[in-house]
Amino acid sequence: MCPGSDSVSDSKSDPNSNGWSRARGAVLKSLVLIGGALLVRRLTKSTTRWDHARIVAQSLSGEKFSKEQAVRDPDNYFNFRWLSCPAADMVDGSKVLYFEQAFWRTPHKPFRQRFFMVKPCAKELKCDVEVGTYAIRDAEEYKNFCDRPRDQRPEPEEVIGDIAEHLTTIHLKRCERGKRCLYEGSTPADGFPNSWQNGATRCTSELAVLKNNEIHAWDRGYDVDGNQVWGVKGGPYEFKPAPASSFDDAFNPLSFASQPVGKRIEGSFVLQE
Questions:
Q1: Which of 123-132, 224-233, 257-266 has the highest mean pLDDT?
Q2: Is residue 266's pLDDT more than 70?
Q3: CATH number for 162
Q4: Which domain holds residue 172?
Q5: Does residue 271 lie within any of the structural domains?
């Protein structure tokens, strides 16, 4: 007989081999059952109010640009850099994010700085996540906060102490199934007091969180007669995360059409004061 036939014959007659096969089968069966149970648990687990707040906070964080939109419509939109990162946690669990906005050519010279406070909506409100914006007590101290090493940033306790006056609040709801967005919402219909420019007395803001951490942001200012006096009219700014491989290209002067130097900034960000 050939050696192969001898080994098969010996295996069939060895009781230890049969015992090992049964044990191995039992282990595999147990692993399949456990894995199935974990999968079912994961799929059926409900999303909590704080889960929604965490998702929105993560989506607002990071570096994003409105480059694609500015290329499509350079007469109405600039290529702005959106930069936000975690700054502190409040006692109640609310997430405080630092935010700054700058021209793509001068990313380290922000012209707008804010704190975002992200938390679940109060149970009596018909929304999922509340995003409040606050002024910064000493904005100069926070310039390029997210770009600095952590040991060169203000400590969380300092951040909380530097949260100044409340500016706006947006209430976000989960988007209906089939829509591109994950969350969307706005300020109340009558907006918030605002005297930023051009005789405005109030402003309204809209915000949408899309998949892949894309953010759509739109604010507009109105005078006492209800006329829009600042802010783009064609739609929100679309901030998209820049792929890591093209980050350097985003700052290449040859990759983007130049904007007229004297063109006025209008409605650059949904959460104006």
A1: 123-132
A2: no
A3: 2.40.128.590
A4: 49-241
A5: no
Beta-strand pair 80-89/62-65? antiparallel
User: pLDDT grade, residue 232 (50/70/90)?
Assistant: confident
**pLDDT score of 15:** 52
| Two structure tokens written together for 252 | 């290449």
Which residue carries 């940033």 as its tokens?
Answer: 153
Written as six digits, the tokens of 98 are: 């630092």
SS (H, E, C) the chain: CCHHHHHHHHHHHCHHHHHHHHHHHHHHHHHHHHHHHHHHHHHHCCCCHHHHHHHHHHHHCEEEECHHHHHHCCCCCCCEEEEEEEEEECCCCCEEEEEEEEECCCCCCCCEEEEEEEEECCCCCCCCEEEEEEEECCHHHHCCHHHCCHHHCCCHHHHHHCEEEEEEEEEEEECCCCCCEEEEEECCCCCEECCCCCCCCEEEEEEEEEHHHCEEEEEEEECCCCCEEECCCCCCEEEEECCHHHHHHHCCHHHCCCCCCCCCCCCCCCCCC
- Rounded to 5°, the CA angle 273-232-127 comes to 55
